Structure formats: C-alpha cells, structure tokens
Amino acid sequence: MSDHRMRVGRERSERTQARILRAALQVFADQGPDAPKIDDVVAAAGISRGTFYNYFDSVDALLAATCAWTTRESIESIEEALAGVEGPALRYGLGLRLFFARARSDPTWSRFVGRVWRVDGLELPDRDLDEGLDRGVFRAASPTAMRDLVRGGVREALLRIGTERTAPEYGDHLTELCLQALGTDPRLIAAVMEHELPEGLEEDESP
Amino acid sequence: MSDHRMRVGRERSERTQARILRAALQVFADQGPDAPKIDDVVAAAGISRGTFYNYFDSVDALLAATCAWTTRESIESIEEALAGVEGPALRYGLGLRLFFARARSDPTWSRFVGRVWRVDGLELPDRDLDEGLDRGVFRAASPTAMRDLVRGGVREALLRIGTERTAPEYGDHLTELCLQALGTDPRLIAAVMEHELPEGLEEDESP
C-alpha cells in the first residue's frame, strides 16, 4: 500500500474507534457496567458486529478501554491546568473543583464516571493526598478510610450532577466538605475556594 | 381449610419468601442490581420458576423487596440500639459505628448495601443530620452536598468491608472522618469514639 492509502486507512480506523468509544460511554453511563451487550453498543455506534470485533474482543475489553480513555483524558487535562500550582491542599482542592466543573459541562461523562469508573490512573490526586498527610496539612487516622470517604463522596456527587440539574455552586460545596473531611485548616480551605480556577480544561471529545 | 392448615400454609409461604430474599441478597451482592436474571435467583434459592412467580412478578420487584427488607432490618435494629442516646453527633456517630460493625459481621449484606441499595428509609440518620445542622453541631454550606459526601463514603466503605479483610478499626476511622467532614468539634468527635457501643444489634436473618 502507498503511504497515502495507509494514512487514510489509519485515520478511518481511529475515527471508527472514537465512534465506538463515544457510543460506549453513553451506553455504560445509561445501563451501568454489567448490563450492556455488544448489540447495544453496535446499535448506538451505528456499526456492524463485524466492525465491532475488529476493535474489541468483548464488552469487558470495551469497558476497560472506555475507562482508560476517560481517565487519561480527564486526569491529564486537570494535571495540565494545575501545572505550577503548589501545595497539596491547593492542588487537591482546585483539582476537585475542575473535576466537578468538567462533570457539569458533560452530564453523560459524569454519569459514566460516577457509575462505572474502575478507579485507576488516580496517581495524581493520590500524590497530593499523600503529600498532604506527610506534611500534616491533612489529618486522618487511616489513609485508606480517608481515600474511601472522598472517593465515594465524589462518585455520589458525579451521579447527582449527571442525572439532575444541580446548583452551580454544588461542586464547590462538595470540594469544601472534602477538604473539611481531610482535616484541612479552615483558612486554607477558604484560600482554595477563593482561588481563581486555573484554565487548561479544554473540551476534547476525541480519544 | 382448617385454622391449622391455614397456619401451616402461611408459615411455609413465609419460609419460602425468606429463602428467596436470602438468595436474592447473595445474587444481587455478587452481580449488582442490573445483571441478575430470574433463573439466577431460582437456582440460588433452589426453587422452581413457578414458585418464584407466586411471590414476585419480576427481578425489579424482587430487588425492591430485598432492599425494603434489608433497610427495615438494619435501620430498625440501630434505632433500637440508640434508644435513649441524646444529641445528634452522638446518635449519628454511634449509628455509623453500629452500621459498620454490622457490615463487618456480614460481608454479603455489606456488599449488597454497598452495591445495590436504593437509598430509602434513611429518615433516622437524616433526622440526626438535620438536627445537627439546626443546632450548629454540624456545619456545611450545602446540606445536599453534605449528605452526598457521607452517603457515598459509607457506600464505598461497605464495598471494601464486603470484599476484603479490613482492619477491625476501619469502621471507626471512617466514622471519625465523616464527623470531621460534618465540621464536628474535635472534642465531640473524641467523645463519640470513646463511647461504649450500645447493644441491641442482634443477628436476625429472617425477614
């Protein structure tokens, strides 16, 4: 094949994969992780079963790929926005505020993450949590319990944002409560909440 | 029919229903709320499809009944244990500690509640939360966000308790963090954690 034909083929293949992943995001967001069948995704993406199997072996493989795509995309864009922001409480708090802003702008994504996300690729927020504990900025008898409370609370919030109309300040309120849960000094919490939200969170739907 | 025969029939019917609900608890705990089919429950309960349909019309009806049974049973036993305990922080904190103790003693129940529970029948803890806010014992910019954080955190904790071996003090640590999230005074948190756990939480598997 010529270079040109190979490039065209590769681009078409990437477009089809993106189309399957976007359809999968919607299907998993609506039905949860366990119920969807390949036919649901095939119908939502408007492709044939044969085409589906060119890209993924099973619903499980598709779920894993959709999670990886979503994680990479959201965590990376927050990491980018936080470049240059110093201090675990400020980084963690602003990261949460950005995460909720993203959720509000894309309810399907929010529902997907809330219902389905296998938690993975969370090295970035976990690093801030660990650093906060080390430095005594956060206080918790058990780091595991601390992570579970925040993770579960964020998940519950994403489900709410993804399924109903929430007040614009809802995400900020939840961020404030998470910081309070972590035992953060009230003055530091106030500083996080008054801080301007960093930019760099572009809408980019393509995987 | 004679009174005797009617009584025998009713008792048998109650036993069968209990058997279906116990099997359903296990099936939903393992597979989540959306995946199970009637055949899964029928197999787990060791009954026929016909018998199943004498009691429930659908998997959805069964899920609702299993949730109602679980809620009634757990919330009522905690309410009983808390009779005579005064003050929203103490009641709420001890209620959480009892809830996690129950979860630890019954991992299937814990997994079921964590994965499946449609939150309902939570008037008891909600009353303590509201009273705590009214009295200024708890502090939160948004009662909705406050409820979501705690509810999500508790759910995440139940999943962990139901799927792996947690440290005996894990439930207490999570309770402490929840109270911290609610903005409770540290001395009051210490009082909750040092308080003896009230009794009245009997294991009762029959619905």
Name some characteristics of this structure.
disordered C terminus, mainly alpha, Tetracycline Repressor, domain 2, 207 residues, homodimer, 10 helices
Word description of this protein:
The structure is a homodimer of 207-residue chains. The relative contact order of chain A is 0.13. In chain A, α1 (3-31) packs across α4. Chain A starts with a helix and ends in a 13-residue tail after the last helix. Chain A is elongated. Chain A has one domain (3-194): Tetracycline Repressor, domain 2. The longest helix of chain A has 29 residues, at 3-31. The first copy, chain A, is an all-alpha fold and 207 residues long. The first copy, chain A, has helices spanning 3-31, 38-45, 49-55, 59-81, 88-105, 107-115, 123-134, 143-163, 170-181, 186-194. At the A-B interface, α8 and α9 of A face α8 and α9 of B.
Estimated helix fraction of chain A: over 70%
Counting H and I runs of at least 4 residues, what is the number of helices of chain A? 10
> What is the assembly state of the chains in this entry?
homodimer
CATH superfamily of chain A: Tetracycline Repressor, domain 2
Q: What structural category do the secondary elements of chain A indicate?
A: mainly alpha
Gross morphology of chain A is elongated
Q: Can you tell me the number of structural domains of chain A?
A: 1
* Uncertain regions spanning at least 5 consecutive residues of chain A: 203-207
Q: The CATH topology of chain A is what?
A: Tetracycline Repressor, domain 2
State the order of secondary-structure elements of chain A, H for helix, E for strand: HHHHHHHHHH
- Radius of gyration of chain A, whole Å: 19 Å
Number of beta-strand segments of chain A: 0
Q: How would a textbook summarize the main sheet of chain A?
A: none
